[in-house]
Sequence to fold (131 residues):
Amino acid sequence: MDKVADIASDIGEYIRQQRSSAKISLRQLSKLAGVSNPYLSQIERGVRKPSAEILQQIAKGLRISAEALYVQAGILDLPTGGPVGDAIRADAELTERQKQVLLDVYESFRRENAAANTAPKTTQQTTEESA
Fold:
């Protein structure tokens, strides 16, 4: 039970930090997200743990990735991809769909390269590399 309370507190604090850095008041965010002011206040204070749907609405109001809130809330695992993936997710000029497509392409290249690095080299590849 304490773990759920910790997650609610963590997500609330994260939302408050994002709202603060965006210079949006609690009232403004509640209007943008379509969530009541008292409910949003309870989320920020860690009293309530929001559903994925509410997190999505809050993310939209904050103009951040819903995925970032899902990770913070423990709904999704921390994404892979390092700084490139983080940069794509943080780009405010891309839509969520565009971000996902870029991340998918990037991850496919990483998998392809990892597979190529673990595959046994042919005689031709070895000859080309030493030339």
Summary: The two ends are 63 Å apart (CA to CA).
